[in-house]
Fold:
Amino acid sequence: MTRSTDETTKGIEHRGRPWLRLLPAVLPLAFLLLFYFYPLSSILSLSLAPEGELSLAPLAELIESPRYLRVAWFTTWQAAVSTLLTTALALPAAYVFARYQFPGKSIIQALTTVPFVLPTMVVSMAFTAFLGPRGAVNRVLMALLGLDRPPLDLQHTLAIILLAHVFYNYTLVVRIVGTYWSNINPHLEEAARVLGSGRWQAFRKITLPLLKPAIGAAALLIFIFCFTSFGVILVLGGPRFATLEVAIYRQTVHYLNQPLAAALSLIQIGFTFGLMVAYTRLQSHQRPVERQSRRATQRPPVHLGERAIVWGSLILILALLALPLAALVLRSLTSGAEGFPTLTFYRQLFENPRNSVFYVPPIAAVRNSISFALATTVLSVTLGLMAATVLDGHARRSAQPASPLRRLLDPIFMLPLGTSAVTLGLGYIVTLDEPPLNLRTSPLLIVLAHTLVALPFVVRSVLPALRSIDPRLREAARMLGASPWQIWREIDLPIVARAVLVGAVFAFTVSMGEFGATSLIARPERPTLPVAIYRLMSRPGATNYGQALAMSTLLMLVCAVSFIAIERFRVGEIGAF
Amino acid sequence: MSSRNRFLFIITLAATVALGACGPATPAATEPPAATATPEPTMSPEPQVLNVMTHDSFDISEETLAAFEEVHNARVQILASGDAGVMLNQAILSKENPLADVIYGVDNTLLGQALEAGILQPYDSPMLEAIPDELAIDPQNRALPVDYGNVCLNYDKGWFAEREIEPPANLEDLTEPAYEGLSVVENPATSSPGLAFLLATIGRFGEEGDYTYLDYWSDLRENDVLVTEGWSEAYWTYFTYGSGGEGDRPIVVSYASSPPVEVQFAEEPFDEAPTAAITADETCFRQIEFVGLLQGTQQTELAQAWIDFMLSETFQEDIPLHMFVFPANENAELPEVFEEFAVVPENPVQTPYDTIQANREAWVEAWTETFLR
Structure:
């Protein structure tokens, strides 16, 4: 960027209303300060300094303990392997969704996101039905190979942890990278091929460098998600595996050892923060991309090779994501050991034979879930757009490296994702207890907690798109007398609209499926779908189990329909890209 | 309306709808049923709100709750607060400014912690007369027993009958070669029935002598016993009956009340329970759940009335089919399915709560060292 651009920017800024310009920076920061840093620092200081005197002994004890070093090491490398595996397996699908049109595309894309909302217990059942000792895969293998014992034993192994992480996070790559990819002009790669480079070389030299920001964003989210993995490790991994998050949970809930839990939380936060600082430095130099509307970059697959990659990706999605889900749906429609098809469980969802206070009609659970998810989406997209604009502005306005303070801003927005839910939940209990913020038992607290987790998804989805905008576009608008607000509205917003919708899908999803944090908040009964599923699964009885599966199917259905609806969201030109 | 104004309009509208839907307005789920929805405004028009903190498994019928609310012109707000450990943690951390007036669901494995933290105040409820002394274990009545249940081994009757194998009869049997790879238990570090089962083995085999509970667990490990994180996973994923044949373990740690619950919630009516609990002496651990008056409540009288109500027959008779445990009040009648199918162990392990409090962490650590490493 040239010096003259800089001066022009300054000139415009001085004329603008300063409070309006500060708003996008102030609002998201105020939100974090109030609902993240304040509760977190209170619970940490309460735990580490119960009598008012800070004791760092638990922290020192941890650093010297070989056991917790092992836990920290396992946490890190399983997250790294999960990230690599997910990215590698999902990149071909991202390409397919970016470049080709085929029938059923939007439904398949919605399907890839469904795993993201499922409670771990439900996924555990799906995996057992599919991969367990008597699951479909083992039965087929036994019949094919004439074995009398199941050949695959994945229960409580590292393999099933990794597989579950791929299952959950596949969609992050497909959506974030796929959407970004779809806006890259395919002529660039074609030109390289005309000039004599091979397909692989053209991809490696042209497309991959352009995709880096989006791949980096998706990989970072996956890494942090797996780094703080909890349910998958506990339920599918079994008692021999532990991440830091699992250790924090155990210390808090089962030993009520608050000082040790706080020390572990600090280590977890410190690690994710360090990682994000490193990531931010790597990502700050991004080149603008010549953008194309998706209509110009997508077409049906024609050649044999193209068909092969489309079909290959779809088969992988089918095997990895769709079959375990189908196993669940099938079970919810099957009665008893004889395997008769039945709708009994669905009918029973509508009955309350013992007049339980906590009976929740499925429609009410759907409504509760959607209300929380919509509120979360609106709040996190609003704050996330502001945050992304501010973060992008810092990179854009000067050729000099960002000041240390600015460099910290990006990682700070990501922090909630790397923070233990149980620690933050207890933080709310000790802080938000006085008017005007007496929110401890308010449903609003659930929306705020969900928004904290959703915000990083919105920022990471939007930021690469925002940074890819050619500065000359904005410059031209500025020359023609447009105000910063007009430029944002007329240029930035329409171009990043697709990415905003991706962020919105994830915000919605985070809220629909989130059970961990909300289960740690004292809440008046307003059960969401995951809470209702959890209730049904916490008691014996075949019909309770059947109803839990029926409710899970309902959750999947509601989510899939919502994703398609969000993707179709169009207002004027917004969303056309 | 231009396109961008419409965009802003829709965002604003969506925000209003979404936030409105989450506001404190009455949701359908907590609306009282039509029959009880119109209490006559004879007393003070504003009902007092009573906050009751519970674990997530709390449940009761609408009629029972309405009966209390009507008599006392109160609105009972139940705060579901995670599992019992999370709930207790919240109560301890909010001691200075309590979240609720009453706490229900602390059990005898956590009672020591609750009493030590000083979050409860004594209340000599007149209803204690109907409650056996062996359940009322806090001499100062800061914690009053509401219900109890026994954590026992359960087995899949059909699985054993089909193979003509004798089902196990006690804890020792699980180490026999005949039962190799057949049992699934829960991790005592993460699960409440898991901890209860560990306490049962400690009660049975002791910590000293030739054969301690740790020796027993080494033998269980040799015999390929599977450990899961929690009850749901053990029961629904690995237990042959619970998983509809997909799991491969016909023996599971569950509750003595699980067999009648299986009958109650069966797809087809049963003549006998499909599963059975092993209730021999010293194979089960008795869990007692308590209610207590929280320090700092502004509603002492109403809260005491609620505690009396929880111990009364109206509430107690509602317990078995809503929470699947046994009422503490001796005068409460059991539902038919419990009378017919539930077996109550005569001599379960009953470890004093202060012994549990003093040793819990060390026991679980020792178990972890023995069984998982």
In short: The beta strands of chain A are 334-335, 340-341, 523-524.
